Amino acid sequence: MTQLGTSPKINTPQAILVLGGSPTREKFAAKFARQHPQLPIFVSSGSPEEYAEYVFDQEGIDRDRIHLDYRAVDTVSNFTVMVKELEKRQINNIYLVTSDYHMSRALVIGKIVLGSRGIQIQPVTIPSKFEPESPVKSLRDGLRSVFWLMTTN
C-alpha cells in the first residue's frame, strides 16, 4: 500500500544487462553497479570469466550479484539467450549497458526480443571513439529477431 501522494515505481529497472564485446563494458558496468547495489548483473558473452570477476572484485561487487553467461555468439543471441533467464527471475525492466556505437542496434534487437516478453529497456550508453554502426546492421538483426520470434514458443 502506498501513502497518499506517492506512487510505486513501476518502471524501475530490476537488473543490469551488459552486452559483451569490449572489456570497457565490464569496467563501466562494475562502476555503474556500485550505484545500484540491489540489482543483479548479467554479462552476456563478455570478457573471460577470470578477468570479468577481477573487474567486479576491484569495484567491491559481491560475486553473488554477477551472472556471467557465455552462450551468445552475437548481439541477437545476447538477447535470445538472456530473455529466458530474465523471465525466469520475473524481471520486467532492465538497464542495458553497451557502447554508444552499438546501442542503436542493441535497442532494435532488445525491443523486439525482450519487448515480446514485456521486458522494458533503459539504455545506459558507454562513450567511445567509434562511429555508429550502419543502419543496415540494425535492419538485418531486427529481421533476424523477428524470425526468432516467429520460430519460438
Describe what is shown at a glance.
With 153 residues, the protein is α/β, with parallel strands linked by helices. The protein has five helices and five strands, in the order E-H-E-H-E-H-E-H-E-H. Strands 3-2-1-4-5 form a five-stranded parallel sheet, with helices on both faces.
Q: What kind of assembly state do the chains in view correspond to?
A: single chain
Mean pLDDT: 93
Straight-line distance between termini = 36 Å
Numbering strands along the chain, what is their spatial order in the largest sheet?
3-2-1-4-5
β content, as a range?
15-25%
Rg? 16 Å
So how many helices? 5
Low-confidence stretches: 1-8
Structural class: alpha/beta
Order of helices and strands: EHEHEHEHEH
Number of strands: 5
Helix content: 40-55%
Q: Using the alpha-carbon principal axes, give the shape.
A: globular
Largest sheet: 5 strands, parallel
